[in-house]
């Protein structure tokens, strides 16, 4: 147990329900507390690649340093440079491409005015909206309190 949380631990398999031990091969804090509570050797539960012997075996050969760029051998070819960055002049394209199935879903969730007759809220006429109305604008009566 760790506070109010409970974790299931299998020392023989090297598994904990928090999954940190499986991901890193290093015992998680829950496993460490269980190992020390039982009085077991902690190093036997750590993966071999983290031990000193593996480090020494990996770096037993001498790694020779590389000369700096000013000491590199010059060639007859021009230096390689990256291409110039050109900023696009248009709006970037969406990464997600819509499929035919997406159109069906959109029609179920999106309301459309297609097929409806426009009605003006100023004069009540059909075929135009208030912004395109040629009639003088109605005055809203101010209510006196």
Q: In terms of topology, how is this protein built?
A:
Layout (H helix, E strand, L loop, with lengths): L8 E2 L4 E2 L3 H5 L4 H10 L13 H7 L41 H10 L36
Antiparallel strand pairs: 1-2
Protein name: SWIM-type domain-containing protein
Organism: Arachis hypogaea
GO molecular function, one term: nucleic acid binding
Can you tell me about this structure?
The structure is a single chain. It contains 4 helices and 2 strands, in the order E-E-H-H-H-H. By secondary structure, it is mainly alpha-helical. A two-stranded antiparallel sheet has the order 1-2. The mean pLDDT is 82. Keywords: Metal-binding, Zinc, Zinc-finger. GO terms for molecular function: nucleic acid binding; zinc ion binding.
Summarize the structure.
The chain has helices spanning 20-24, 29-38, 52-58, 100-109; strands at residues 9-10, 15-16. With 145 residues, the chain is mainly α.
Let me know the average pLDDT. 82
Distance between the termini: 68 Å
DSSP E strands, number: 2
Tally of alpha and pi helices:
4
Bulk shape: flat
Oligomeric state, counting identical vs distinct chains: single chain
């Amino acid at each position: 147990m760790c506070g109010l949380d409970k974790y299931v631990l299998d020392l023989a398999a090297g598994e904990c329900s928090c999954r940190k031990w499986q991901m890193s091969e290093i015992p998680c804090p829950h496993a460490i507390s269980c190992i020390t509570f039982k009085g077991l050797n902690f190093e036997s539960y750590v993966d071999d690649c983290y031990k000193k012997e593996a480090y020494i075996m990996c770096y037993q050969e001498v790694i020779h340093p590389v000369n700096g760029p000013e000491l590199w051998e010059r060639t007859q070819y021009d230096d390689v440079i990256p291409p110039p960055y050109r900023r696009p002049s248009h709006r970037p394209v969406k990464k997600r491409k819509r499929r035919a199935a997406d159109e069906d879903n959109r029609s179920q969730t999106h309301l459309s005015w297609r097929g409806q007759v426009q009605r003006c809220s100023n004069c009540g006429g059909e075929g135009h909206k208030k912004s395109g109305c040629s009639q003088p604008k109605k005055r809203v009566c101010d209510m006196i309190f």
